[in-house]
């Protein structure tokens, strides 16, 4: 069984700081991690490796430094890693990103493609299903449990108020959520090996994709403007003893008939 | 681009139903869709897929749709990615809507990207604002970006339809108007069993979403500053004294202090209670996006400069572990 896991390197916080003067992101000093949902996807692939001796390949599209995320995945037990990197990918939205990943996946053998449901720096949950569409694969998103028997998978897919049980055959693309498993730590056994292993590095010439579909130019959506959010700023600020503050607050709530 | 934008006309809303019951988010989207289609001077259409669902079409008209396109087919009884994507994409190619809005439910977030990829168009996820640019007539889609610290306005200028998903609770539905009239189009799309590669074996409802903080009138919410799981008991006591429920920020949920069903914010629930009391919440944009429309916001924080203090109607500088017990006493006193 061949499994491909799509991962993304993201800043290790969902509360990145904004430079109050320039209004841009402060990326310095923010460590990078493997996106949490992607780690659940990787863990599930590794469980299938433990159980069925599946071959696990991790792939990521990103800047050269995303190699670090791939090394970490190898240290957890992945067999192979591919970094898809090219300046031409810059500014890609989810559609342009998914096309690159799908083109890369097409070069590899696979029965299951795993991805995280969504990345903490974008929260779109789009790249997984879009890859599945480009590859004409069936998909199951929000996966919280997987059982495999031969080519048939029985999957529990989370819903807001419960779950549904879905049967599907490989090849298939699955997107993982936190509830699926608890990702393992890097393994000493693999860490040394991981740093010896060669990571394949592919650029836009190594995959079969039209150049016009890459990066910002190949992205149907574009950011027209971004702004820090206006806050109301019409409230009152009180700085008094807890007892006085509570009395003041309850008086206000009462005046407005909220209590 | 080989598509002629001018061929595309009208605003569509995906009318999501489960068990022949319309999802609230779809009605909310009709509210916003009405506004957008009025600005464009075009028709607002609800697209309804399912089995034995033709009867609920009128409800969509009562909530603002001019037209309902219905595809009633046994194979569409339960949502499947393959079945719904095929039907919707064929309908889009036939009718060519310029705007297509989908609720960001666990189903809409499965369907939206699949449809967008098939149609080679853009999709903007989890929008908190939708408007029409007065010059270009393009849809301006605003959403929190970078973990919710910035708001970005996104445009899909050259591709159609312009697609967006919106989370439940972000927009308000219109008042139901049973006198509204509209047309109902029954569409037959060829769909075979073999088109659908997944099989839904069962759909199980659990109690996990019993507490719907989206419906609560009073929410006492805690964030990173609450410090630990035990301190949430204090918040709960205040919530109970006031007849409300407890909510949590993303940080509190990520730390495992509260279950995700209680999460307020862009990635949790969008709430608009009468009273929102934020304790130990700094006020990241992604959190503010989920609660700023509350009628009255009280923030308790040690840091007077925290963003939540600026969003609050009443900002109390102080230690919530000291202020809340006093609030509980005072509320009980007033109630008696």
Outline the structure in words.
The complex is a heterodimer of chains A (259) and B (336). Chain A is α/β, with parallel strands linked by helices and 259 residues long. Chain A has helices at 36-52, 67-76, 94-105, 127-134, 188-196, 242-255; strands at residues 2-6, 9-11, 32-34, 55-61, 80-84, 112-116, 138-149, 152-159, 162-169, 172-176, 200-202, 222-227, 236-238. In chain A, the strands form two sheets. Chain A has a nine-stranded mixed beta sheet, sandwiched between helices. Chain A is globular, with a radius of gyration of 22 Å. The mean pLDDT of chain A is 92. Chain B is α/β, with parallel strands linked by helices. Chain B has helices at residues 24-40, 57-62, 81-95, 108-118, 232-242, 250-254, 285-288, 307-311, 320-335; strands at residues 11-15, 17-18, 21-22, 44-50, 67-72, 99-103, 123-124, 129-132, 139-145, 150-155, 162-166, 183-186, 198-205, 218-222, 245-248, 275-279, 296-301, 314-317. A seven-stranded parallel beta sheet of chain B has the order 7-11-6-1-4-5-12, sandwiched between helices. A five-stranded parallel beta sheet of chain B has the order 15-14-16-17-18. The radius of gyration of chain B is 22 Å and the shape is elongated. Chains A and B meet through helix 3, helix 4, strand 7, strand 8 and strand 9 of A and helix 3, helix 4, strand 7, strand 9 and strand 10 of B. Strand 12 of chain A pairs antiparallel with strand 10 of chain B, so a sheet runs across the interface.
């Amino acid at each position: 069984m061949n499994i491909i896991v799509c991962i993304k390197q993201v800043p290790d916080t969902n509360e990145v700081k904004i430079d109050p003067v320039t209004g841009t992101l402060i990326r310095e000093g923010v460590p990078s991690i493997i996106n949490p949902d992607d780690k659940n996807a990787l863990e599930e692939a590794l469980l299938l490796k433990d159980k069925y001796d599946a071959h696990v390949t991790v792939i990521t599209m990103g800047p050269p430094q995303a190699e670090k995320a791939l090394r970490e995945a190898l240290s957890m037990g992945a067999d192979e890693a591919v970094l898809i990197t090219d300046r031409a990918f810059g500014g890609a939205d989810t559609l342009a990103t998914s096309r690159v990943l799908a083109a890369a996946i097409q070069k590899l053998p696979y029965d299951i493609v795993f991805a995280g449901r969504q990345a903490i720096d974008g929260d779109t949950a789009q790249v997984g299903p879009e890859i599945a569409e480009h590859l004409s694969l069936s998909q199951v998103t929000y996966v919280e449990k997987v059982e495999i028997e031969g080519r048939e998978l029985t999957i529990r897919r989370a819903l807001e108020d419960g779950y549904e049980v879905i049967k599907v055959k490989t090849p298939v693309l699955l997107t993982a959520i936190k509830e699926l498993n608890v990702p393992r730590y890097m393994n000493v056994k693999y860490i040394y090996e991981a740093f010896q292993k060669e990571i394949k590095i592919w650029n836009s010439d190594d995959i079969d994709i039209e150049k016009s579909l890459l990066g910002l130019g190949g992205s149907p959506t574009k950011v027209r403007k971004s702004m820090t959010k206006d806050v109301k700023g019409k409230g009152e600020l009180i700085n008094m003893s807890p007892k006085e503050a509570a009395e003041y607050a309850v008086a206000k709530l009462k005046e407005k008939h909220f209590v | 681009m080989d598509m002629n934008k001018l061929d595309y006309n009208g605003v569509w809303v995906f009318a999501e139903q489960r068990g022949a019951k319309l999802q609230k988010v779809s009605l909310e989207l009709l509210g916003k869709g009405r506004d957008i289609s009025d600005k464009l001077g075009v028709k607002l259409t609800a697209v309804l897929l399912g089995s034995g669902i033709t009867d609920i079409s009128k409800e969509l008209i009562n909530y603002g749709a001019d037209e309902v396109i219905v595809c009633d087919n046994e194979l569409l009884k339960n949502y499947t990615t393959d079945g719904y994507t095929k039907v919707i994409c064929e309908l889009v190619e036939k009718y060519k809507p310029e705007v297509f809005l989908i609720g960001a439910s666990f189903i809409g977030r499965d369907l939206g990207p699949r449809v967008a990829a098939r149609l080679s168009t853009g999709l903007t996820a989890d929008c908190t604002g939708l408007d029409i640019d007065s010059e270009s007539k393009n849809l301006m889609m605003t959403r929190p970006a970078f973990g919710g610290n910035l708001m970005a306005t996104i445009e899909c200028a050259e591709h159609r339809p312009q697609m967006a998903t919106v989370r439940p609770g972000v927009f308000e539905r219109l008042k139901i108007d049973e006198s509204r009239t509209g047309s109902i189009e029954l569409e037959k799309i060829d769909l075979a069993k073999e088109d659908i590669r997944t099989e839904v074996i069962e759909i199980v409802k659990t109690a996990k979403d019993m507490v719907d903080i989206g419906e609560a009138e009073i929410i006492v919410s805690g964030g990173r500053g609450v410090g630990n799981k035990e301190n949430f008991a204090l918040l709960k006591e205040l919530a109970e004294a006031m007849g409300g429920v407890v909510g949590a920020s993303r940080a509190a949920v990520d730390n495992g202090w509260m279950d995700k069903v209680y999460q307020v914010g862009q990635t949790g629930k969008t709430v608009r209670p009468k009273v929102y009391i934020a304790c130990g919440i700094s006020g990241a944009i992604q959190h503010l996006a989920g609660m700023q429309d509350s009628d009255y916001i009280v923030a308790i924080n040690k840091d007077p400069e925290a963003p939540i203090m600026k969003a609050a109607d009443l900002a109390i500088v102080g230690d919530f572990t000291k202020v809340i017990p006093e609030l509980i006493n005072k509320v009980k006193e007033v109630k008696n």
